[in-house]
Design a protein that fits this description.
With 359 residues, the protein is an alpha/beta fold. Helices cover 40% and strands 18% of the residues. It folds into two domains: 136 residues, Four Helix Bundle (Hemerythrin (Met), subunit A); 215 residues, Rossmann fold (3-Layer(aba) Sandwich), CATH 3.40.50.10470. The structure holds 5-S-methyl-1-O-phosphono-5-thio-D-ribulose. Pathway: Amino-acid biosynthesis; L-methionine biosynthesis via salvage pathway; L-methionine from S-methyl-5-thio-alpha-D-ribose 1-phosphate: step 1/6.
Length: 359
């Protein structure tokens, strides 16, 4: 992997971009202090970047996985049996992170594209086009969801609102613009945002390091707080919406998202706030009946031990699940690019996914 330092901080950024025959990733581990880009040229480098969280966020890791396959095809150059030649790359990328379904969804799209190619097709070129199309479609889905989510806020409120969000769901986590943060950006443009309260999002600090950074660049008023302050803020700061993303949505509407989302949904219900989930249809896993059997990624306990210096004595056991499940009945609305599902359940989601949903 090659590393480059980005010097013009006034530029808008891309979490991922095709650049000089490589996948250029903004190294999110270094933000907000340093803006450095890393170029990946094969599937192993992309898988490592996903596993190490240089690139993160459900849609973004899906897009990166697709580019990983395109890069591997370019690295191989030519083959009589592309399915066999790329098998290891598919496997490696699929295993890079387990919870967000967007990664396996994007790899399935790439597999399907490969299977449909004519025998003498330029496979590396066609797979690159497929990855770029997945990237572009994600951006377009985000713009659609942003509008739908903003209209939903406008349906209930005509004045600027205080909104609470969790983790990072912005341009950094997606093909561009963002999911939950995309809705917040569109709402800001429509004059519907006063302050965005940003959960710090322990232990990786996606909220304080990434979301606050994005909001500041957008000129949106943000206020960061420790995760444990969310209930107190809901009680005292006139917050009306909690808006979050999703890593996977089960067929019954259960939402798997960053650890802490479940607790927020209960707090929101207690305080009478609306709870909006914003995710592209690539995050909906119709094969998963409910979220009970989903693999919740557990990362190294080391992530809990160091935060501005060591925080826990060596040798103390630690548990670091990075996602949790919010049951469908705690969710007011799921916004996707295909439409809005209020009070989600299995039938409404099945209708949405088969285009029978009207909104
Ligand atoms: C649009 S991003 C939606 C989710 O992927 C996001 O909320 C989240 O949980 C990201 O987790 P991360 O562990 O940073 O990849």
């Amino acid at each position: 992997m090659q590393r480059a330092v980005h010097t013009d901080v006034a530029d808008s950024f891309s979490a991922l971009a095709w650049h000089n025959d490589a996948l250029r990733l903004l190294d999110q581990r270094l933000l907000p202090g340093r803006e450095e880009y890393v170029d990946c040229t094969d599937a192993a480098q992309v898988a490592a970047a996903i596993g190490d969280m240089l690139v993160r966020g459900a849609p973004a890791i899906g897009i990166a996985g697709a580019y990983g396959i395109a890069l591997q095809a370019r690295a191989i150059g030519s083959s009589d049996d592309w399915t066999a030649a790329l098998a290891e790359a598919f496997e490696m990328l699929e295993a890079a992170r387990p919870t967000a379904v967007n990664l396996s969804w994007a790899l399935k799209m790439m597999r399907d594209r490969l299977a449909r190619l004519a025998p003498h097709a330029d496979v590396p070129a066609r797979l690159l086009e497929a990855a770029q199309s997945i990237h572009q479609s994600d951006l377009e889905a985000n713009l659609t969801m942003a509008k739908l989510g903003m209209q939903l806020i406008r349906k209930h409120h005509k004045t600027p609102q205080n909104i609470l969000t969790h983790c990072n769901t912005g341009a950094l986590a997606t093909g561009g613009y963002g999911t939950a943060l995309g809705v917040i950006r569109a709402a800001q443009a429509a004059g519907l945002v006063d302050t965005v309260f940003v959960d710090e999002t322990r232990p990786w600090l996606q909220g304080s390091r990434l979301t606050a950074w994005e909001l500041q660049r957008e000129g949106i008023q943000a206020c960061v707080h420790v995760d444990a302050a969310a209930g107190h803020l809901m009680k005292t700061r006139d917050i009306t919406w909690v808006i979050v993303g999703a890593d996977r949505i089960a067929a019954n509407g259960d939402v798997i998202n960053k650890i802490g989302t479940y607790a927020l949904s209960i707090l929101a219900m207690h305080h009478g706030l609306r709870f909006m989930v914003v995710a592209p249809s690539s995050s909906i896993d119709m094969a998963l009946e409910n979220a009970d059997e989903v693999v919740i990624e557990e990362r190294s306990a080391d992530e809990l031990f160091v935060l501005g210096g060591q925080t826990v004595d060596a040798g103390i056991p630690a548990f670091n699940p990075v996602f949790d499940v919010t049951p469908a009945d705690l969710i007011d609305v799921i916004v996707t690019e295909k439409g809005i599902v209020e009070r989600p359940d299995a039938k409404k989601l099945a209708d949405l996914m088969s285009h029978r949903h009207l909104h």
